[in-house]
Amino acid sequence: MLEAVNVLVPDGLLIPDLVIADAAATAGAGATLHADDVVVAVEIASPSTRVIDRRTKPGLYAAAGIPHYWRLDLDPAPRLHLGRLAPDGSGYLDRTVQPGESTALTEPFPFDLDPAALRR
Asked: Which Pfam families does UniProt cross-reference here (predicted)?
């Protein structure tokens, strides 16, 4: 897992808040990873990035073939939007996890978190 690393996508360069990537690729990556090495791109939406994180970045990550795009919205309460790339690569199939619910993921790795645990 890396924080604020550069990710090369076909349309340029993106800097997700967190990246979960192939361990071998991260060992020699330095400050830049290729999209092919990224398993999950995570954005933490803030007032200044909310529109870009919701509307622009999912399409760019999908076009790059990144299998998972997750977005954490903190206001008005923590919610996780878990996107998995559609089989045709056209975009992400999203599931929103509300406070009091569990992510209960098995792919791309076991992950079980209630967004309520992320309260400020």
From this structure: Uma2 (PF05685)
Predicted confidence band of residue 84 (pLDDT cuts 50, 70, 90) = very high
Contact 74, 47 (CB under 8 A): no
Residues 64, 9 contacting (CB under 8 angstroms):
yes
| Continuous H helices in the chain | 23-27, 50-51, 57-63
Q: What are phi and psi of 91, to 5 degrees?
A: 170, -170
Whole-number mean pLDDT of the chain?
93
- Residue 38 pLDDT greater than 90, yes or no: yes
pLDDT at 64: 97
Answer CATH for 2-118 from 3.90.1570.10, 3.30.2350.10, 3.40.190.10, 3.40.50.1970: 3.90.1570.10
| φ and ψ of 44, to 5 deg | -105, 105
Which residues share a beta bridge with 69? 41, 83
Rounded to whole angstroms, the Cα distance separating 111 from 120 reads 21
Token pair for residue 85? Answer: 């790339």
